[in-house]
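Take a protein:
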Amino acid sequence: MKWTIEDAPECFKEIIAGINYSKHFGPQWPTIICEPPEWDIENYLEQINFDNLCTVASNLRGGVACKITGETFGHYNLIYFVEFEDDVQWVARIPLLWRQYTCDDKSVEEAVQRRLFESMVAAQTYARVKKGVFAPEIYAAFMDKDNPVGVPFVFMKRILESYWVNEENIGFWRLDENIGHMQDGPLRTVFRDLAREMVSLASPPYFTSIGSLYQNPNTYYVGPMLAIASLQDGPVELDKRGPYSTVEEYFLSCLNRHANVALQEQNRALYMQSTRLRALLPDLIDPLYNEGPFILSPFDWDSRDIFFSNDHLLKGVIDWDFATVVPVQAFFRYPPFMTRDWLLGTKSFEMERYRRLFRECLAEIQDETEFPLLELLDQSRWFQMLDEGIQSSEVGSQVLPLLEAYVEAQRNKQVEAKAFHVVKGTPVMKEVRSPPRKKAAIGE
């Protein structure tokens, strides 16, 4: 039942009057229990020609008729489910680019927004075509609003979420909706496939620079880095955002940007923060990986973006917004749904179980890659903290004390008093657990 202004409570009438129900494809507030409308989205819907959206989809399939059967709105994208009369199903994905990046200079804003959209398309296509990852196929991409629909959008394959028909499950299960009641056996199967997706992305050929991924008609290339953590942290000058040929260059570029802002604003705290983070680089950058290889990584491996089948095999990894080409030290990491207790500073037996299983799964496939998976997994917690702290000055202020404490503890472990036999029988200082590579090589 759709509420009307006449029969709605007085407090709802103004809200209902602002909703254009002809631009929606499913129950809306207040007939369903959900948040009230987001007015920036409601205004944006007025620009979208949904009849033309169906026409374009039909033309791409040789005239097979179709209709929009549903919608779901995320923070960064509008999702529409397109069903053809031969039961083929697509997704139309319309980005909310102003939520990804905005600034006062409209020409810069448009350039960055277009780059973000292009990078998402390139990353998702590269992962599926070049690395065999379970990323949905993109059938068509319209990079700007100069098209019959009136806004940028893509058509892609739909990963059908699980539903029941005559006691038979159809479609695939979303990990976030099921992980809480999964036993170790099924969860291990999902995690093993997830670990293999990581190894697939980390297979040769590798990238030789750090940044965001883009696509020419026939080639992929690494261009300016548009990482989510740094987009709102000062003005974005595309010609000063990479690509970067070394990890050191990448970090120093970010730190220099913060230092310059600090000097301009006479912000002593920010300047000292940048200086202290810079001092940590020799301890946290592994010289073996300073010049690569570099690997395409999705933004977060979120559990809501991972789909698996009835036999617990991985069938889809969606949402490649903000995917970037990153240092290998930042790539092999625990997905964030396994580390929420770290963020909260609490102890969670469930999170520990997830990490234990995932670690065991990585160890099982060590012979499928040249990288020392467990060593990199152990490094990733601190390296990722460093990465995010350097990209974002706000994050940096939070993680700096933790990083300094960790580095100091590691330095204290490298040299300890240990007696061993000498001619005069005098205990001396012996270096133990010394690193196999010269850490001071970075930043000298």
About this structure: The radius of gyration is 25 Å. The chain has two domains: 38-245+291-391, 415-441. DSSP finds 14 helices and 16 strands in the chain. The longest strand covers residues 66-73.
